[in-house]
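Weekly structure sync, notes
Attendees: PL (lead), two postdocs, one rotation student
Agenda item 3: pending single-chain targets
PL asked that the sequence for the first pending target be pasted directly into the notes so everyone works from the same version. It is reproduced below exactly as submitted, 85 residues in total.
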Amino acid sequence: MAERLRKQEEEEKRRKLEIAEKQARKMEAFVEEKEKEVLQLQEEAKNFITPENLEARIEECLDNPRNYNFAINKDGRIVKRTVLS
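Predicted structure, written out during the meeting:
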């Protein structure tokens, strides 16, 4: 009887430990994923327009105009483009 209770207690402890380890692995994976997201956002933030770089970005856009007014056919080829003024 005491042997059976001891085995049940050991089994319960083992299950609780496995659950705790599984939760720790999930939390670690979650933290790692969030760290990757933060690094990606920091990388994207380098291209943001700020008051400090506003003039330079305006000059860059004026020096390199782009025309986004075009049509594409079903194959994905550009078929008509308007003249850039």
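Discussion points:
- The chain is about 65% helix and 10% strand.
- The chain has a mean pLDDT of 90.
Action: rotation student to compare against the earlier draft before next sync.
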